[in-house]
């Protein structure tokens, strides 16, 4: 049995299509709204509607929101190419390879950091939801680089707080199309789910605060290598911010990258790597900084574009 919501149609939604109105009222995608309507989980004035019906202010909506499906348990298997940069009783810092999600989610069938660590016999904190125990921050599945996982319960609590309070330094290297103007700057633009409901995120008025600082390390003919520091940790933040300026990460087809340039450089994912992660050790208080080497595909593409520039 899902959550029951009953409310009158507000005047601001007069004349809106039902699926669009549900999306605005409850914050889920148009696709999910259409699925609820098709499943008979939405009534308008007690009658079963069509998703394209136009609403009138004051009509009564009854909506049953089913509980989200439970994420699968992590697959316990060591992950080739996932190297350990540091480990002690409280934390483990890894260099995450591409194609690996942080933890299991609905719809993801590939390997996860959590499953890889547990499968290789590492102890991980049991704090947090079962499918994301020990995970205090995430990298996108196809973003590589430095990531910390909590092993003790104390480390989990303190690291979660440190990330929330922006006391963790997160630096990335990104290869973007074209040249940044200015060469260094700050992008301060709110981010939320893209209105299309297709899994993308976008700069959206009224979204969550997102701040990205960038500096050009080197400009090549068709692309630039950037050093990026983020203050906030929104989903897809760097990818969305750079794409919004017209400079998507090379190979980031979700956010408008040029397939020709990506193919020339041998890149089939976003060129984005978490190069440095620095934070206060959650138990000893010591300031620690970890640097993750580029994976082979990014190092190879950088050589190709550098040789071209020579």
Automatic annotation (TrEMBL):
<dbReference type="InterPro" id="IPR002942">
    <property type="entry name" value="S4_RNA-bd"/>
</dbReference>
<dbReference type="InterPro" id="IPR006224">
    <property type="entry name" value="PsdUridine_synth_RluA-like_CS"/>
</dbReference>
<protein>
    <recommendedName>
        <fullName>Pseudouridine synthase</fullName>
        <ecNumber>5.4.99.-</ecNumber>
    </recommendedName>
</protein>
<keyword id="KW-0694">RNA-binding</keyword>
<dbReference type="GO" id="GO:0003723">
    <property type="term" value="F:RNA binding"/>
</dbReference>
<dbReference type="Pfam" id="PF01479">
    <property type="entry name" value="S4"/>
</dbReference>
<dbReference type="InterPro" id="IPR036986">
    <property type="entry name" value="S4_RNA-bd_sf"/>
</dbReference>
<dbReference type="InterPro" id="IPR006225">
    <property type="entry name" value="PsdUridine_synth_RluC/D"/>
</dbReference>
<comment type="function">
    <text>Responsible for synthesis of pseudouridine from uracil.</text>
</comment>
<feature type="active site">
    <location>
        <position position="140"/>
    </location>
</feature>
<feature type="domain" description="Pseudouridine synthase RsuA/RluA-like">
    <location>
        <begin position="90"/>
        <end position="244"/>
    </location>
</feature>
<dbReference type="GO" id="GO:0000455">
    <property type="term" value="P:enzyme-directed rRNA pseudouridine synthesis"/>
</dbReference>
<keyword id="KW-0413">Isomerase</keyword>
<dbReference type="InterPro" id="IPR020103">
    <property type="entry name" value="PsdUridine_synth_cat_dom_sf"/>
</dbReference>
<feature type="domain" description="RNA-binding S4">
    <location>
        <begin position="16"/>
        <end position="59"/>
    </location>
</feature>
<comment type="similarity">
    <text>Belongs to the pseudouridine synthase RluA family.</text>
</comment>
<dbReference type="InterPro" id="IPR006145">
    <property type="entry name" value="PsdUridine_synth_RsuA/RluA"/>
</dbReference>
<dbReference type="InterPro" id="IPR050188">
    <property type="entry name" value="RluA_PseudoU_synthase"/>
</dbReference>
<dbReference type="GO" id="GO:0120159">
    <property type="term" value="F:rRNA pseudouridine synthase activity"/>
</dbReference>
<dbReference type="Pfam" id="PF00849">
    <property type="entry name" value="PseudoU_synth_2"/>
</dbReference>
